[in-house]
Amino acid sequence: MSRRTSRSSRPATVPENSPRITPASPCPCGLPAAYGDCCGRFHAGTAAPTCEALMRSRYSAFVVRDAGYLLRTWHPETRPPSVDFDPAMRWTGLEILEATEGSAFHTTGTVTFRAHYSDDGRPDALHEKSRFVRHDGAWVYATAIFVD
Q1: Cβ contacts of residue 81 below 8 Å, gap of 6+?
Q2: Above 90 in pLDDT, residue 92?
């Protein structure tokens, strides 16, 4: 997911009205696991083993507004200076539609997904095909093609 901004002077802090997700909460990525056992472990520093796991953890990072994780997992050639979280936007669900390559045996992979959200209470969705590559041995988000 590539929501970004060029406003580098704005600090990447978690707003007061961000969703309260605890390690025991259901993981926002949609897998049947607690956040702490699923995407939370990647946010805490464990490397995502596949590009699909990285995609899910990046979606969860948007939900919990973890700008540091998003920037760390963005390829340095396409990484913005900061991530801007719209206070009116709430991520509400993730559908993985297709994943190609992106395993421990690959150096590239793609994940096509639909991320549902509400913007100021109005439901919408982002449909994207994200490209991931290995950088310094870890999966990172490289680029996106917006499907619709």
Answers
A1: 6, 7, 8
A2: yes
